[in-house]
Each structure stands twice: as C-alpha cells, then as structure tokens.
Amino acid sequence: MNxxxxxxxxxxxxxxxxxxxxxxxxxxxDIDQEHRFPTETVEKMxxxxxxxxxxxxxxxxAGGDYISYAITVEELSxxxxxxxxxxSAHTSLCCWPIFNYGTEEQKEKYLPNLLSGKHLGAxxxxxPGAGTDAGGQQTKAVLDGxxxxxxxxxxxxxxxxxxxxxxxxxxxxxxxxxxxxxxAFIIEKGDPGFSIGKTEDxxxxxxxxxxxxxxxxxxxxxxxxxxxxxxxxxxxxxTLDGGRIGIASQALGIAQGAFDVTVEYMxxxxxxxxxxxxxxxxxxxxxxxxxxxxxARLLIYKAADMKDKHMDISEASAMAKLYAAETAMYVTTKxxxxxxxxxxxxxxPVERMMRxxxxxxxxxxxxxxxxxxxxxxxxxx
Amino acid sequence: xAFKIIxxxxxxxxxxxxxxxxxxxxxxRDGVPSILNNDDANALEEALRIxxxxxxxVVTVVSMGPPQATDMLFECVAMGADDAILISDRxxxxxxxxxxxxxxxxxxxxxxxxxxxxxxxxxxxxAIDGDTAQVGPQIAEKLDIPQVTYVEEFKMDDDRKNITVxxxxxxxxxxxxxxxxxxxxxxxxxxxxxxxxxxxxFAEDKDIKTWNADDIDVDRTTVGLxxxxxxxxxxxxxxxxxxxxxxxxxxxxxxxxxxxxxxxGKHII
Lengths: 381, 269
Description:
A: Butyryl-CoA Dehydrogenase, subunit A, domain 2; Butyryl-CoA Dehydrogenase, subunit A, domain 3; 4-stranded mixed beta sheet; 10 helices; about 50% helix; about 15% strand; B: alpha/beta; Rossmann fold; 2 domains; two-stranded antiparallel ribbon; 6 helices; about 25% helix
C-alpha cells in the first residue's frame, strides 16, 4: 500500500495543470456557448503527448501508466469537461481495444497515428434501441467474399464528427447475440457507405462532438475485424471497464473544478457582513464535498493502479465511476447553490460544470449499470 | 560536430506562493513549491528551439543547488533537454554570486573536458529569489567569452557562428551582432517556454548527473559561504504602498484641476 504519487505522476499533474490553465480554461466558457469542438486544443494535446499516455513508446505512446492518464483527464476536466472526455474517449475507447485486441498489422497500422494524436479515435456501440441493453444491436455485418458489409446506425458517439478511426460493433449472428453473435470492427473515416449523421444538441459537454454514425452497405476489408468473429461483446465490455476510469476521472475533475472556484468565491463573497466561508453551515457542507471528492479520487486511482497491474478491474472501475459521477453531480449542484443567483448565470463556471457533470452519471454505463456490475460481483456465486 | 548548448538554470521558490513573516521579515519557505526559475525557462526554450531546427544540437542544463534541485532538472529534461548536471556539495553551499559563478565555471570546465568545447551558453537574466542578475555575466567573464544580457530576440545564421540579438533597454533596444561561443541571458520577452512533454516525463533514460566539489575540481577557497565577499546584511519587506489613483478628466486642464482638488482634499497643499 502506497498513497504517494511517483515523481513522474507528480510531474504529469504539474504539466497538465499548467497546460489546462493556459490552454483549456480560457476557452471553456466560449466553446460551451458556441458548441464548438476545440480542434486547436486537440492539436496541442497531441503535440505534448496527452493522447497516448498509457501505451508503449514503440507504438508511439508516452510509455506512461493509468494513474497518470487518470490525473490527465482529471486536470483537463477541472478546466473543461468537454476537453476531458475528448481525451478519455480517444484513449480508452479507441486506442485501448486496438492495442489489446488488434493483430500486429492492425496495431502497426493504426496506433502510431492514434497515439501521436495525428488521428482521433471514437467508439460506436450505442444504438437508438440498444443503450444499456447493448445486446439489442440492430447494426448487422455480413461477410461478402473478402469484405465485411455493415448496415445500421449508431447514436451518441463521442468525438463522432472529428474522429478518423472508429471501433464499431455489429451483429454477425443474431441468434447468438451477446454470447458470440456480436463482432468488433475498425472503421475509417471515408470508408464507402459510412457517414456521420446528425450532431446531438446536448445539455452539457457542448464542446464535445456527439453524433450518429450511419452505415449503408458500408464495405470494409476482411482484415478490419477486431478480435475474432463473435468476440465483439468481450471487446465492448472490457473496453468499457477501462473507459470508466476515464469517465470517473472526468467526473472527479468537474467536481474538483467546481469545488475550487466555490472556495474562491466563498472567501470573497460577503452576506450579512461576513464572508460566506465564515458561515459554519456552508463550511461544513464544503468539508463534506471535499471528503467525497477525495474518496472518489482514491477509488479511481485504485482502479487505475489495478489496471496497471493487469488485474480484473470490472468491479473497481464500476465503483469508481458510480461514486465519482454521483459526487460530481452532488458537488456541482451544491456549488451552484452556494453561488446563489450568480451560480445560475453563465458569468460563473459552476453553471456549465453542473450541466457537464450530469452526463457522467449516464454515459459509458449509467449509474444503474454500475450497480448491476457491482451487485453481479457481490452475488456471483 | 554536434552543436553544443549549455543552459544555466536555478531552482527557486515559487514567489507566487511565498508569504513573508511580518514579524521577522523573513520568507516562510514551508510548503512553498520549488520551480524552474522563470527567465531560465526562457533560456532553455531558446536552446530547444535551436535543437528543433537542427538535428545535431545537444542541450545540457547546468545547475548548482541542493540535491532536490534534480527535480527542476527532471523538468528541464522532460521539456526536451538532452541531459543535465547538478553541482551539489556542502562545500559550495551558501555561495554568493561570485562563489556561485566560480563553481559553475568549474562545472563547465569539467563539461568541456568530457564533451569538448561548447558553442553557446544561455542563462536566464536573473533568479526571482535573489534578483541579482550577476551569475550569468560573471560566468561569461570568468570563461572569457563575449556576452549579451537582456536578450529579447535571437537569430542565428545557418553557419551557426553569427548571431544577431536584440537587447532590451529601459528606453529602447540595441541590435548586437555576436559570434559563438558566447553567453546570452534571456528575458521573458524572448519566447514562450514550452510545457513538459509526456514522453519526456516517462523517458527512462534521463541523464541527470550530480557532481560534487571533487568532480568539478574546484579550488575550495573560492566557493561556499566563507569565500563569498558579499553577505546579506538585512532583509526587509517593503510596506505595501496601496493602490495608485489615476486622475480622470476630459482634458489636461480638467485633470490638473482634479489633481489640485485631490491634493487639497488631503491637505497636501
């Protein structure tokens, strides 16, 4: 047991904090209002190696660890939840499954560009009728000679409009469904029959691109199959196990960001001749929030540490994501309250942070799904 | 032949975080993070830009300080420097600027012995803790190389011999042509320092050496507290002066009138 960050991890925090303060935070309010994907920030993240942290240097990664990755998403999200999820979805949901399940050829073809940030990645599992019930996939893939042919549509795909590489799931044997009937594929932007559908107009994380993916007789070479035929559901579940560390870190960052600006506000704002920080009822609430934030952080770092040690993280990452997401919602709601009327305006960042927090309870497995996972581990015998 | 650049850097307390004990007038250093001195980051950045431009450039950061200054050198290497050397020994502790430059010069001579002659030395104008701006110029004098201080623009010809710099003055600037090898001290206007790079942070082969007084073969009578000709006589905290006032007015005459009213109001005139 060791609760000290390594020297490298400390420097990662210092570096990303400086990066986020100078490059991310100044844009956060504007890109939220303009619903604008921050391509310039993505380019800078690529330049400084933020888009390939926990992968080997031989493939173009930074050779870092998952705790450093969690710290990175946390620090980015402290300034801007949208920027945090761009990094998280790219790293956990696209780079990782290709790294873990890809053939040597697939890894060599896709990872250098993805990990250097030259290409951005996305992940397509959710469909209009298949959210939590991922087995209800309607998108079909059929082998036709040397090609796979995909038909169907995906929704709510993070990074959708700006990604170059997509890990996409489709039914290859409906009868088997989640028991070997779903397969994973690597789709490239520009593949024939593949197009981006409508962009969602969301409550929060407005600078993140959330789109439909449409497959109409989309024809891709046979070697784009990721993992074996029917091995897609396993790819999806294990990918989401890791992805939850990223989303939990995003939630943690949003909570910490809202907390920090509220501390600042409470030491300046006066009512009844006293600073808000001098009201014990409010100060105690802040103590409660701080404790929950730290608990979320420890759950996340534990799950990340387990991932670095190649342990089964399914339950640990579900707990981290459940708790961090609920903490983000709890903390941001209180922070808006403590700002009073100002907190409800766009002049203060807590309004955006509260809207951004909500999604963390929903995507990459709702809080209810996390409880299903945890309950499943509890009563598995 | 590689083009070799030495960057002189110092680890300093982050003055943004520093508090002063109002009773003793001394710095409260507890819990204050240490950082790479601001102007030194500009010095390193300029060296790294040369390295970005040419393939055969080697950037070595040299510092003197306690063992924990290796953290600052870690940051320099994570930003892109090839290697770093920390001169650290009780014998050099407490050095003033004269003694410090003696130690750094001895370190540079050892560097030359190991690596051959350097082409360029960058230093920051001054450190935010001491504010003397003396160590860089002293190093140049003792190495007997030309120097330009307060560099705000740097241009080197492709022959990598002829350099033109813009030297900031209080009321203007000087354009100076200078040839390598030379010493240039950087100010913040020179560039915008880069961040550390993730790959740099995790690079396993970081070359950060520590040299003691024996390693640099320095004359011990020229370094350390005892050898330092200057001593801190007294340090004090300037009293905050309060905010200045800008006298408003539609024209000069109005402004003058308002100024007179304000001065009379305070019974100054």
